[in-house]
């Protein structure tokens, strides 16, 4: 990972401070609860994304997992494709 990649990971820390911002907002409690709910959904999506990335890189090392459609059609070029595929 390059130095820029490591620095971009530190940007995640700013998202964690969002709870303090929500608590100091001058709005109703309903709005604060809604923002906390959306923050929770956001954290869940980020967590699932990291899990999927970890699973992808783990299976890419072994090259044992294939999509069911690829197994049926006998296309075993999944690991030769780019990450964005």
Structural class: mainly alpha
- How many strands, what sense, and barrel or not for the largest sheet? none
> Helix-strand pattern, N to C?
HHHHH
Compute the number of structural domains.
1
Give helix % range: 55-70%
| Spatial separation of the terminal alpha carbons | 21 Å
In terms of DSSP E residues, the strand content is: under 5%
Radius of gyration: 20 Å
Overall pLDDT metric: 75
| DSSP strand count | 0
Shape: elongated
Point out poorly predicted stretches. Answer: none
Q: Count the DSSP helices.
A: 5
Detail the topology: elements first, then pairings:
Elements: H1 3-9, H2 12-16, H3 18-23, H4 29-62, H5 68-73
Descriptive notes:
The chain has five helices and no strands. With 85 residues, the chain is an all-alpha fold. The chain has helices at 3-9, 12-16, 18-23, 29-62, 68-73.
Based on the model shown, name its key terms:
0% strand; 85 residues; mainly alpha
Provide a compact summary of the structure.
With 85 residues, this protein is mainly α. It is built from 5 helices and no strands.
């Amino acid at each position: 990972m390059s130095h820029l990649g490591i620095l971009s990971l530190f940007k995640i820390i700013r998202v964690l401070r969002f709870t303090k911002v929500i608590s100091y907002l001058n709005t109703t409690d309903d709005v604060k609860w809604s923002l906390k709910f959306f923050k929770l959904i956001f954290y869940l999506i980020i967590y699932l994304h990291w899990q999927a990335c970890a699973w992808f890189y783990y299976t890419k090392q072994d090259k044992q997992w294939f999509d069911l459609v690829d197994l049926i059609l006998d296309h075993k070029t999944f690991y030769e494709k780019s990450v964005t595929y």
